[in-house]
Amino acid sequence: MILIPLVHEIPRQRQYFHDLIDKEQTKADYSDGVRDNAIYYSEDTLLSYILTKAILKDVDRIQIMIENMPTNGREAGEDNQVKIGYLKAVWEMLRQYNADNKVDPYFYKKLVANIRDLLVAVNENKVMDFVKTNSNIYTLSNGKLLLENHQDARAYLYIELGKEHPIMMIKRLNEYANDTFADDIISDAAHVLPSVIF
Question: What pLDDT is recorded for position 126?
């Protein structure tokens, strides 16, 4: 498949973050002891293909997409900071993958697709619409950095997941303990897990 070329050369300030992403991809590639642009998961070649495509190929496309995103009226300095934030989110996702001792190829396939779509939504100022239709573990994971400046969408996501998955959300209480919506999640969880809440 042909990759869409970069519209402009990557500025030096952002190249550092691309390098961090590339290092995590190399680590993932080399996890089987061989650097061959393929991630070996098991004898099941489909699962190995799914991981290779998501972690190596799709992430490369996301890096190019970030660089080619329209500025939407942002000044050059602001646009640079915004895109650095996007790259940091991708880097964190890859760090999560490399730290995972029980990799689920289907989870990471969906996680990578989610971050691509969430990045587009953030850049197009359609975050709340995205979160309302994607209130799930993938958006929760990718939203740690990408939803920092979208508190309404972040609150909506956490509250909805608190209703659907109270046990999971109580285990993640440290992520949102200081937020005003924490009481709502704890209250919902108390109905299901009174002893844990106590």
Answer: 98
What pLDDT, on the 0 to 100 scale, is given for residue 167? Answer: 82
**pLDDT score for 118:** 98
pLDDT number for residue 178: 85
pLDDT of residue 196: 59
Domain that holds residue 181: 127-198
Residue 160 counted as domain residue: yes
Domain co-membership, 145 together with 99: no
3 state SS for the chain: CCCCCCCCCCCHHHHHHHHHHHHHHHHHHHHHCCCCCCCCCCCCHHHHHHHHHHHHHHHHHHHHHHHHCCCCCCCHHHHHHHHHHHHHHHHHHHHHHHHCCCCCHHHHHHHHHHHHHHHHHHHCCCHHHHHHHCCCHHHHHHHHHHCCCCHHHHHHHHHHHHHHCHHHHHHCHHHCCCCCCHHHHHHHHHHHCHHHHC
